């Protein structure tokens, strides 16, 4: 972080401070006595720090000083706020501070003699995520904020008792119980989590490792079909589920809970073991984060300014470095910077790989590349150094599955690449094979506003609110009856049954 430096110029002091007849022999009027009796200018700034709830939020900063010069304020770079002078009354100057970007920065207030630094933190605003995919299930939010899920419900990950505890397919969307209004959803292997519009977190499904964030129900393989509030009374602006762990972003701080056998929680609590960790715990970092992504057994966060840090399993280089690549079950609980990647504004965690988008929409990926899921032409299957996705496309959204990746362009066209064994690319290219497909190819026939992917399927919501899915459908995760109870591919996007309409923003 570059901080503005303040410099002061002290003018000359007149040799004679008092008119005629004053000599240094007179202690009452000697210059030293006059200077010693004058109090040093004092600069006071309130409040001493600012925590703003999101972009567009404003606050007032007040500064007073006995110095005669003007009071000024400047913001460090990269900036997270703008500062405007509201005017001066007597010796007090007020400034209007407006949050312009999520992250942290510093306001330096000066009076020409003294400076005071005011730390500022701007929280990411809660973004709408109206569609989420678990490994064998899918969930969406309707325009009223109710959540609906379909697919596998062996552990209650659909949020209701339909098919609970069985391996039956549930292709018809079912409303999540509890009457909770949601603004964002995320899906893990066998659990689902959501945020209310106020940022309160609820989770449901399997909780054997504490991935639901509830100590009261953790440590068993029983299904929990009713959403439970995540412990800690925290509010989050983003939530992301890995296979068996979950992380939430609160005020720039990342909290994680659940399985931590390879350090995917970013702490040493339960590290290297199978014990549950149901309590949301800050990761071992003082960084200010603005984005988070969770893969199968790893997690990454984008800090203010775009630097990316990752922790957890690195057997395929999904942490963005070559430490212990090719080795299994080696824990990396300390967030480590990813080298060789530009500043990223958003992240997506795949099975054993990671991707992200720059602010201009350029996609970068690293980690497992067995079926071309990184979008790179290299034949290497372990790629710890980030590579730009081929094709020169610009995306508004990027989502990742177990071994396939999809990017949504600003015009609503979806492009997918990676494995297509079960039709998860939405095309017949190399269908039913493990042949890599590293080049992004358009999914035809749809103009989409929202997308989600996990496991071996993908779904999207059109601009009119209709949901379509494609890929594996053994448990009805596509919301259709075709090829349920089989592993036959479904390469053509099909409308989810029931005629439900889902929110697009």
Q: Strands, helices and their partners?
A:
Elements: H1 31-36, E1 43-46, E2 50-52, E3 58-65, E4 72-75, E5 81-89, E6 92-99, E7 103-110, E8 115-122, E9 131-133, E10 137-141, E11 147-151, E12 174-175, E13 184-187, E14 191-195, E15 201-206, E16 223-229, E17 238-241, E18 245-250, E19 253-258, E20 281-282, E21 289-294, E22 298-303, E23 308-312, E24 336-337, E25 346-349, E26 353-357, E27 363-368, E28 382-388, E29 397-400, E30 404-408, E31 414-418, E32 441-442, E33 448-454, E34 457-462, E35 467-471, E36 494-495
Parallel strand pairs: 2-8
Antiparallel strand pairs: 1-3, 3-6, 4-7, 5-6, 7-8, 9-10, 10-11, 11-12, 13-14, 14-15, 15-16, 17-18, 18-19, 19-20, 21-22, 22-23, 23-24, 25-26, 26-27, 27-28, 29-30, 30-31, 31-32, 33-34, 34-35, 35-36
Structure description:
The chain is mainly beta and 505 residues long. The chain is 1% helix and 36% strand. It has one helix and 36 strands. It has one helix at residues 31-36; strands at residues 43-46, 50-52, 58-65, 72-75, 81-89, 92-99, 103-110, 115-122, 131-133, 137-141, 147-151, 174-175, 184-187, 191-195, 201-206, 223-229, 238-241, 245-250, 253-258, 281-282, 289-294, 298-303, 308-312, 336-337, 346-349, 353-357, 363-368, 382-388, 397-400, 404-408, 414-418, 441-442, 448-454, 457-462, 467-471, 494-495. Strands 1-3-6-5 form a four-stranded antiparallel β-sheet, with no helix packed on it. The longest helix is centred in the first third of the chain and has 6 residues, at 31-36. The relative contact order is 0.09. Mean pLDDT is 89; it is low at 1-38.
């Amino acid at each position: 972080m570059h901080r503005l430096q303040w410099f002061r110029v002290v003018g000359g002091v007149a040799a004679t401070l008092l008119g005629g007849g004053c000599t240094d022999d007179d202690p009452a009027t000697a210059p030293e006595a006059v200077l010693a009796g004058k109090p040093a200018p004092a600069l006071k700034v309130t409040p001493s720090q600012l925590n703003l709830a999101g972009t567009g939020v404003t606050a007032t900063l007040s500064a007073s000083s006995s110095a005669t010069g003007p009071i000024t304020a400047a913001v460090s770079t990269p900036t997270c706020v703008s500062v405007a002078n509201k005017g001066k009354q007597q010796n007090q100057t007020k400034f209007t501070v407006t949050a312009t970007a999520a992250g942290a920065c510093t306001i330096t207030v000066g009076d020409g003699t003294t400076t005071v630094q005011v730390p500022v933190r701007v929280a990411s605003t809660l973004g709408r995520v109206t569609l989420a995919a678990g490994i064998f299930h899918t969930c969406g939010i309707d325009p009223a904020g109710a959540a609906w899920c379909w697919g596998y419900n062996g552990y209650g990950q659909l949020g209701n008792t339909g098919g609970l505890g069985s391996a039956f397919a549930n292709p018809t969307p079912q409303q999540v119980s509890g009457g909770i209004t949601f603004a964002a959803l995320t899906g893990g292997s066998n659990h689902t989590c959501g945020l209310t519009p106020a940022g309160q977190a609820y989770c449901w499904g399997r909780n054997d490792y504490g991935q639901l964030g509830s100590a009261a129900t953790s440590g068993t393989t029983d299904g929990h079909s009713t959403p439970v509030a995540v412990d800690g009374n925290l509010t989050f602006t983003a939530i992301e589920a890995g296979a068996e762990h979950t992380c939430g972003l609160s005020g720039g701080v990342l909290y994680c809970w659940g399985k931590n056998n390879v350090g995917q929680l970013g702490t040493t609590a339960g590290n290297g073991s199978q014990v549950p960790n149901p309590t949301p715990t800050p990761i071992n970092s003082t960084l200010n984060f603005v984005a988070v992504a969770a893969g199968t057994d790893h997690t990454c966060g984008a800090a203010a300014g775009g630097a990316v840090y990752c922790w957890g399993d690195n057997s395929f280089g999904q942490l963005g470095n070559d430490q212990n690549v090719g080795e299994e079950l080696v824990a990396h609980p300390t967030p480590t910077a990813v080298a060789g990647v530009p500043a990223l504004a958003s992240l997506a965690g795949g099975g054993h790989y990671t991707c992200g988008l720059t602010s201009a929409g350029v996609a970068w990926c690293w980690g497992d590349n067995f079926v071309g899921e990184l979008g790179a032409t290299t034949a290497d299957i372990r790629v710890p150094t980030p590579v730009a996705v081929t094709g020169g496309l610009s995306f508004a959204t990027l989502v990742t599955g177990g071994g396939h990746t999809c990017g949504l362009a600003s015009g609503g066209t979806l492009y997918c690449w990676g494995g297509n064994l079960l039709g998860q690319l939405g095309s017949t290219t190399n269908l039913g094979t493990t042949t890599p497909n590293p080049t992004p190819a358009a999914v035809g026939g749809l103009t989409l506003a929202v997308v989600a992917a996990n496991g071996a399927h993908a779904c999207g919501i059109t601009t009119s609110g209709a949901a379509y899915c494609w890929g594996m459908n053994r448990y009805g995760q596509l919301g259709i009856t075709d090829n349920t109870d089989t592993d036959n591919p479904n390469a053509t996007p099909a409308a989810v049954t029931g005629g439900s309409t889902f929110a697009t923003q």
